[in-house]
Specification:
mainly alpha; 3 helices; 83% helix; 0% strand; Small, acid-soluble spore protein N
C-alpha cells in the first residue's frame, strides 16, 4: 500500500505544481511595472514544476504518465511563450 500512496502523492504534487505554474502565467501582465518580477516568478514555477513532474513520472501509473506527459507538453509551451 505505501507504493500506491507514493504514486498518488507524487501525482497530486505534480498537479499542484502545474496549477501553481498556470496561476503564475495567467497573472503575467506586460503592462504592469511588476512584469519583470512576474516573469521571474513564472520561470521559477516552470523549473519547479519540471522537477516535480519528472520525479512523479518515475513512479506514475500508465494513466498518470499520460496526464504528466500533457503537463510536460503544456509546460514547454509556457517556456516558449515566456521567451518570446
Amino acid at each position: 500500500m505505501p507504493y500506491e500512496k507514493n504514486k498518488r502523492q507524487a501525482f497530486e504534487h505534480a498537479q499542484q505544481a502545474y496549477t501553481q505554474l498556470e496561476e503564475a502565467v495567467t497573472q503575467l501582465d506586460p503592462y504592469s511595472p511588476e512584469f519583470g518580477h512576474q516573469v521571474k516568478l513564472a520561470e521559477q514555477e516552470i523549473n519547479e514544476a519540471t522537477q516535480i513532474i519528472n520525479k512523479a513520472y518515475s513512479v506514475a501509473s500508465e494513466h498518470q504518465k499520460r496526464q504528466l506527459d500533457q503537463y510536460a507538453q503544456e509546460l514547454e509551451q509556457f517556456k516558449f511563450e515566456l521567451k518570446n
